[in-house]
Amino acid sequence: MATLTGKRACPFCGKRIQATSHKCMYCGAFLEAAEGRSIEFPSDELHARKGNWWLPADQSRWAVAAGYLGVLALVPYLGLAFGLLAVMCGVMALRDLNRHPALRGQGRAYLGLVLGGLGSLYNVFVLAAVVLPHFVGRHGPAPRI
Ligand SMILES: [Zn+2]
Questions:
Q1: How many A from CA of 58 to the centre of ligand 1?
Q2: Whether residue 92 sits in one domain with residue 31
């Protein structure tokens, strides 16, 4: 945007300012942020990522995984394995978020923890209800007539 005169228009207020200045002297806006260079996201790696709702670039990958696994945890029988994985990913997500404050995804991390925990419990009961009578019937004492 720099011109031959060494000036450019402030993207916020439109006044002519020095092309090299980082802050508009008229409205006080930070110009680097306006051009997408990192102020909110200091990590270059984070800024380079692309993503969408299904695989958000600014969220912890662990949190995204925990969210999906948490939903899968509600599937009967198979859900037990997904639920345990969801809880594990949720814990990893919270640790990841602690280490990288610029990352988001806390909501999904907790979603994974809660759904994963509930799904696991639910499936433990389902499995117990299905498997235990079978087991007891085979190996338990014979019913008296
Ligand atoms: Zn300005």
A1: 28
A2: no
Q: Do residue 25 and residue 68 come from a single domain?
A: no
The predicted-structure confidence for 2-20, as pLDDT tens digits, reads as follows 445 688 888 889 899 888 8
Of residues 106, 99, 69, the one with CA closest to residue 84: 69
Instruction: Say how many Å lie between the CA of residue 31 and the centre of ligand 1.
Output: 8
Q: For Cα atoms 116, 120, 124, give the angle at the middle one, nearest 5 degrees.
A: 175
Is pLDDT larger for residue 110 or for residue 54?
Answer: 110
Distance 38 CA to ligand 1 centre (A): 19
Average pLDDT over residues 58-62: 89
Assess whether pLDDT exceeds 80 at residue 46. no
In a domain, 143, yes or no: no
Q: How far is the CA of 30 from the centre of ligand 1 (A)?
A: 9
Q: Which residue range is the domain that position 98 belongs to?
A: 61-135
In a domain, 106, yes or no: yes
Q: Do 66 and 123 fall within a single domain? A: yes
Distance 23 CA to ligand 1 centre (A): 8
Task: State the residue for tokens 């995804």.
Answer: 105
> 82 C-alpha vs ligand 1 centroid, how far in Å?
52
Average pLDDT, integer, range 123-144: 75
Q: Encoding tokens for residue 80?
A: 């037990």
